[in-house]
Amino acid sequence: MELLLSDVVSLVCIVISAVIFSRTEQQKAELKAIRSELNVTSQCNQEVLIFNRVPKVGSQTMNHLIADLRARNNFTGFTSMDGMPESMLGGETVFLPQKEMRKMAVDTLATTEVNKRPFAFLKHQNFFNFSEFGYQSPIYINFVRHPVERMISWYYYIRAPWYLFEETTNSDNTTRVDKKDNLLKLREYKTNFEDCFRRKQKGCHVEENFSVHNNPWMPDMASQMTFFCGHGPQCDAFNSKRMLDIAKSNVEKHFAVVGVLEDWDMSLEVLEAYVPRFFAEAREAYATNEEIRHVNKNIYKPKTEKAVKRELAAKMGRELEFYYFCRQRLKRQYWALKDGL
Question: Which end of the chain is more exposed for a tag (fewer CB within 10 A), N or C?
């Protein structure tokens, strides 16, 4: 029996289609496995979200966005709690090397119930490993930003007029505005970042293995890796290999999503998909609330010389590696969504 050319063509098309279908199904299965691997949300306590805010990565904007989402998604939120270490120590408690202080914080977060509703806790705080004290991990999220841009942003942020004052509510519900304590000296406000960095002045000098939390020469909040590393001594050594390794491991094991300021829209889409209990409708909320989109913009920050940025980047190699690691992970999470899985 002779086959017509059209029959041969049809047969070839069927074979090719079968191969393509098989390969497509294999790719879908691979993407599904990747998405499962990258989504740790299901392993976490679904009632608690912790946003342990890295400063100057859009965290104020995220605070306002989460406030908007509370009513939409039926949860509540806190920036402080009774029983947390700051009630004893005062001020920011980003780094807690004392085990009893960490236990106090974790006990409070793990056992708090708010009218049987889920809650979000938002604070500048290094990562807590809840399993250290026998608790299931909450849903952790955070954001990162290019480390050089973040450090420069912080430098000018603490020199902006609004940072110099704080508003206090009086007992009669009136408010007053006072100057903050521990302000910089006048000449420090007048010094631009380039001069401060080149002169290695206080608050601008970074070196590998400098203490992140207890060195006056280091810029405040200089490391974003430390927020993902934790509270051990290895999480206090600036730009160290050990800090990088621990931070990467914690991101993969414990953080549902680490957004990226430079990939803002992508970050919101991934948050919606991977943490829907808290972030459903996040993109709509952000798009329709103009106040959220204009939080904390610093009109007083000038441009910084590219040469200085390059010099600073050379001192932050592992901070940069961590940033690009988080950025790649976010993109993998995003592309795992694009197949409609």
Answer: N
Q: For residue 284, tell me if it sits in a domain.
A: yes
Tokens linked to 334: 């995003």
Paired with 51 in beta bridges are: 122, 141
> H-type helices in 139-211, by residue range?
147-157, 186-190, 193-198
- The pLDDT tens digits for 74-117 are 999 998 888 788 755 656 789 999 999 999 999 999 998 877 78
Q: Output the 3-class SS for 235-270.
A: HHECCCHHHHHHHHHHHHHHEEEEEEHHHHHHHHHH
CATH of the domain at 138: 3.40.50.300
What's the whole-number mean pLDDT along residues 308-336? 97
DSSP three-state, residue 329:
helix
25 domain-assigned: no
- The reported pTM is 0.85
64 lies in which domain range? 43-337
In a domain, 207, yes or no: yes
pLDDT of residue 168: 62
Comparing C-alpha atoms, which of 123, 130, 140 is closest to residue 103?
A: 130
Mean pLDDT score across all residues of the chain: 86
**pLDDT value at 28 more than 80:** no
> Helix, strand or coil for residue 134?
coil
Task: Name the pairing type of β-strands 175-179 and 165-169.
Answer: antiparallel
Collect all residues with Cβ–Cβ distance below 8 Å to 228 and sequence separation of at least 6: 126, 127, 142, 246, 247, 250, 251, 255, 258, 322
- Which of these, 165, 196, 193, lies nearest to 180 by C-alpha position? 165
Is 70 exceeded by the pLDDT of residue 6?
A: no
Look at residue 1 and tell me if it is in a domain: no
